[in-house]
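Recall from the previous lesson that a structure prediction takes nothing but the amino acid sequence as input. Here we apply that procedure to Transposase IS200-like domain-containing protein from Caulifigura coniformis. The sequence below is the only information supplied.
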Amino acid sequence: MAAGGMCAGVTRSRSERGERGVWQRRFYEHTCRDEADLKCCLDYLHVNPLKHGLVSRVRDWPWSSFHRHQRLGEYELGWGDASVWYGDEFSQFE
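The prediction returns the following tokens.
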């Protein structure tokens, strides 16, 4: 905002809390406890475009770090096909 950016409209509830319309309201912070937890978080990130209906396979999202992890051998190329995901696997993260 100091650089001339615009603030989104402020709702009554935000105004009552002294909030501005800059940041998203929901924020979930999670510290990865171990390698298995980190893998779970990466799975969640990689499956997001699929979950939101933007692609039918994780590998079809060109901006994903999935491609790097797949080249490193951490994922099979076919991992994340829409036929295996039901949409509620990551509900505990939301």
